[in-house]
Write a structure and sequence with these properties.
Elements: E1 7-12, E2 23-27, E3 32-42, E4 45-56, E5 59-69, E6 75-84, E7 87-95, E8 101-103, E9 106-107, E10 116-119, H1 127-133, E11 140-142, E12 145-148, E13 155-158, E14 161-164, E15 172-178, E16 183-189, E17 195-198, E18 202-204
Parallel strand pairs: 1-16, 10-12
Antiparallel strand pairs: 1-17, 2-3, 2-18, 3-4, 4-5, 5-6, 6-7, 7-8, 8-9, 11-14, 12-13, 14-15, 15-16, 17-18
Length: 206
Amino acid sequence: MNQHGLSRVVISGAPGARLPVSAAWRHEDARAGFEVVFPCTLEDGHRFEGDCAAVEAGEPWAIRYEIIVDPRWVTRRAEVTGLSSRGVRGVTLDHDGAGRWLVDGAPAAHLDGCLDVDLEASAFTNALPVNRLGLEVGESAKAPAAWVRALDLGIEPLAQRYRRLEDGGGEARYAYEAPALGFAAELRYHGLGLGTDYPGVAVRVL
């Protein structure tokens, strides 16, 4: 999820496809950079290990993350390490699966009700709530997320909403909005949603 303007996300892949062994995005326009992620299917969910490095508004930064989701695609743990001019930072988020979080082992009541983690640095993490929600055409749902900022790894709740639209061109379409960021988009998905073309923000290259 990025806070820059109106964009359209196109996520490609055959319905029911298995997670690829790797995926990569080139970040552009809003920032110059690159992201890679290595998914792994576990007995009790999925693990995603990724790296992002970019320059945005004249500030270079690099992010490494590991995100674990359960079989419902609810985020259960995220470890994030960041490098910037502010130094090296790290944060760990643990989630009980029902909306309560620990940040570096301490209760984080301000995140109560969030079921997903959303990294500002990542073109990948938008796939998590869509896979978790499994909306039918015409359905909508709120999807508040624990939003981790790229530069300082600050964490705050981010209100989001997804509404499933009529499919088009073999793709599942969603109206998405994050009012606090002044952001709205139409998202399109196939399969598990890792083949992302995010015009104005990132383009998948692998």
